Amino acid sequence: MIVLQAMVDGLSLGALYALIAVGYTVVYGIIQLINFAHGEVFMVGAFGSMTVWLLVPGQQLGLWMLPIMLIGGMVASVAIALLMERVAYRPLRNSPRLAPLITAIGVSVFLQEFVRLFYGRIPGFPDAKANVTFPTIEGVTGTAIKLGGLDIDRPTIFTLAALIVCTVFLYLFVNKSRIGRAMQATSQDPDTARLMGINVDRIIMIAFAVGAVLAAIAGTAQGMMNTNINFKMGFIAGLKAFSAAVLGGIGNIWGALVGGLVIGVLESLATQVMPHGSAWKDVWAFVVLILILVFRPQGLLGARVVDRA
Amino acid sequence: MDRWVEMLEIKDLKVAYGRVRAVKGVSFTVEEGQIVCLLGTNGAGKTTTLKTISGLLRAESGEIWFDGRRIDAQPAHEIVGLGLAHSPEGRRIFPRLTVEDNLRLGAFARKDKAGIAKDLQRAYGLFPVLYERRAQPAGTFSGGEQQMLAIGRSLLSHPRLLMLDEPSMGLSPLMMQRIMTTIAELQQEGVTILLVEQNAQAALSLADYGYVLETGVITLENTGRALLSDERVRKAYLGED
């Protein structure tokens, strides 16, 4: 039973990593940049939905607040992601690959510090130098649901449902839409994509935006799971999601989803089943990262079946 | 109206990669309905010239006029919409997309659904193998099939001027013949063609007019037939001594 419980908890955690991991992998697939500031896009998403909640008068906790908060988080995340692409990465598009990578780390630190120092200065907003209590929305937070001896946390249900909806949306978007096909073309051969009439700059912006939308959902889910958020929440979560993206095969969206779930379940099992496991909570994702880089660097689903003849 | 109309005009084009200038002041014209051939050895600047016309590279100086409109400052993704398609060297099909997705991407700049459907049928009509294998990933194709796909994909933009860079590269003689026949057919349908070829014999037999490019400058120009019998061309490009 403890194993089963650990797996349920792991799926919840894994769904969170999966939602974040998509952002790393989509951007990497188009411009071969590891956007190390993507963890902060997730953090800003959490603060964005928090902010919307603060702006609605009367500290509303009804379930109807959830979609409004999600939209607020998405707007904040997308805005930050597009801004970093335009200001920090686009000018370095033709530089050696190390330059945008280091810039990404700089953007990451900048965003953490910016939220830490300035969020609380807005009148009526809580100080963000430490944990900020996240609103406990009815229905998706509160007492766990009992199901045959298992405790299923309410945020878990939300997170898994969000992951399923996002997966369907991504599948349709990537494979069935005109823009999705243009994204695949751009990722395979950007110059030839331009010859087809595809505006590659716009495709890159869409890639950042898609990752940001999913990160904002994850940020809100994390807030409800942990009942609080803070300026550095994106750091470890981002690195674990990055590991998930590498595990699945960086550049492969489905790999990121699978990798996220695998890392979440492994982490939960190791933490709950092994003696003193919880002290090592943040180790397992990186053990997986190292193992996969050594033994299967292309990732679980990263093998290209067919390429240029 | 038998007067030729200039469709493409290049004026004193100079292009550099970093500090190396690959095209050093090239001028030429392509008239409507013609097949014009650019000849030259590797590194002569042929591919660079085409890439600059389609907007993938920026010129240092010079002018590019297409259809009475100056296009040398326009981004590549807008140029194809004007009716100027570029089928790049090495075919550059999208290997992990299906044949049909590749073809449809050729029409990305268009909005007229009926026209796209018609041009899709036209591409399938020209190359039935593409229709038979339309659901397969394009990367599974042989070189010749990929070349057919690349040409078919360019046609989906419904170009009035089609630039083909080395369409016969790496193909068997039979397949090459097939591609050359297709180019002649396209001209019959009214498509103007700017052809870059290593295979001078085949290209000049088709071409109305030809230019010889050597290390970034045009050294010779004449009708296709005249170039074919020109001693300098025969020595340098047709392997005769």
Automatic annotation (TrEMBL), chain A:
CDD domains, per this entry? TM_PBP1_LivH_like
Kindly list the residue ranges recorded as spanning the membrane: 15-34, 64-84, 96-119, 156-174, 203-221, 241-266, 278-295
Q: Name one Pfam family in it.
A: BPD_transp_2
Keywords of this protein's UniProt record, alphabetized? Amino-acid transport, Cell inner membrane, Cell membrane, Membrane, Transmembrane, Transmembrane helix, Transport
The membrane topology noted for this protein in its Swiss-Prot or TrEMBL record is:
Multi-pass membrane protein
Q: Does the keyword Ion transport apply?
A: no
Q: Name one GO molecular function term.
A: L-valine transmembrane transporter activity
Protein's name in the database: Branched-chain amino acid ABC transporter permease
Q: Where in the cell is it found?
A: Cell membrane
Q: Key word Membrane present in the record?
A: yes
Q: What is its main location?
A: membrane
For this chain, the family text in UniProt reads: Belongs to the binding-protein-dependent transport system permease family. LivHM subfamily.
Question: May I have one GO cellular component term?
Answer: plasma membrane
What does the entry give for GO biological process?
D-alanine transmembrane transport; L-alanine transport; L-isoleucine import across plasma membrane
TrEMBL record, chain B:
Q: Where is the ABC transporter domain?
A: 8-240
| Classification via Pfam families | ABC_tran
- Is ATP-binding given among the entry's keywords? yes
Q: Which UniProt keywords apply?
A: Amino-acid transport, ATP-binding, Nucleotide-binding, Transport
Q: Report the GO molecular function annotations.
A: ATP binding; ATP hydrolysis activity; branched-chain amino acid transmembrane transporter activity
The GO annotation for biological process reads: L-amino acid transport
**Alphabetized PROSITE patterns for the sequence:** ABC_TRANSPORTER_1, ABC_TRANSPORTER_2
Task: Identify its protein family.
Answer: Belongs to the ABC transporter superfamily.
* Name used for this protein in its record: ABC transporter ATP-binding protein
Organism of derivation: Microlunatus endophyticus
